[in-house]
Amino acid sequence: MTAVEVEEATVRRARRTVLRDVSVRVEAGRVCALLGMNGAGKSTLFDVIADRLPLAGGSIEVLGATPRKARRAGRVGYVVQSERIDLDFPVTVRGVVSMGIASRREARQRTDDAIERVGLQDLVDRPLGRLSGGQRKRAFLARCLAQRAELILLDEPFAGVDRPSELTLRQAIGDLAADGNTVIVSTHDVRELDTWCDDAIVLAGRVVASGPVRETVTAERLAQAFGWEGSA
Ligand SMILES: Nc1ncnc2c1ncn2[C@@H]1O[C@H](COP(=O)(O)OP(=O)(O)OP(=O)(O)O)[C@@H](O)[C@H]1O
């Protein structure tokens, strides 16, 4: 099954075209890295997949449905970039994780399991605003786990997190894919990519390259496209 299929998509923000003629396909059960410089359109592509922005042209299917249907059925989990999170919102770790669960009956167990999987069991009653950046990202990932989303979008989950948190996140991402879910992760960090993802999409307002990570993200290609030397 195909998790995301975008064809010749155009997306505008504030009347500017920020994605042009974008065609990408992400197969179910894969971990796909979304790469590109600041302003390349990574968050915009996530917003479209997660039904937060409409297409100005082209078409998109998410889990075989429209983005709206997929979102409303709770099949898509989206962890936005930390800059977009409202830290004044008064909610604890447990609160934020349980928000993703539609079934009340299983809520407690699923919440506890998800919190444990990201290693936040000692912080369940801590308000979100009093967590570190890395802990907060883990809390939002736990929400996707509890929700049992089939498609998980993670916008720069590794930015500013320490090595143990990064490894916890990577482990959780691998587990999700092993269970048949699809994970798309935007990142600036191209080091060690082939240790945790299968495919990559390189964006620059359009698709520069996409495919299996080893063929797509070569040092030569990145240097050519962006002048990168390992990390953007
Ligand atoms: N809310 C908004 N309103 C208008 N334009 C926006 C908005 N958000 C982003 N943009 C513009 O859309 C373009 C793509 O931005 P986007 O946030 O998708 O890039 P990105 O690849 O996620 O960047 P970064 O790595 O900095 O997070 C940029 O030119 C940006 O200025």
From TrEMBL:
The keyword rRNA processing does not apply. GO terms for molecular function: ATP binding; ATP hydrolysis activity. Gene3D superfamilies: P-loop containing nucleotide triphosphate hydrolases (3.40.50.300). InterPro entries: AAA+_ATPase, ABC_transporter-like_ATP-bd, ABC_transporter-like_CS, Metal_Ion_Import_ABC, P-loop_NTPase. CDD domains: ABC_Metallic_Cations. SUPFAM superfamilies: P-loop containing nucleoside triphosphate hydrolases. Residues 4-230 form the ABC transporter domain. Keywords: ATP-binding, Nucleotide-binding, Transport. Belongs to the ABC transporter superfamily. This is Metal ABC transporter ATP-binding protein. It comes from Aeromicrobium piscarium. The lineage of its organism: Bacteria, Bacillati, Actinomycetota, Actinomycetes, Propionibacteriales.
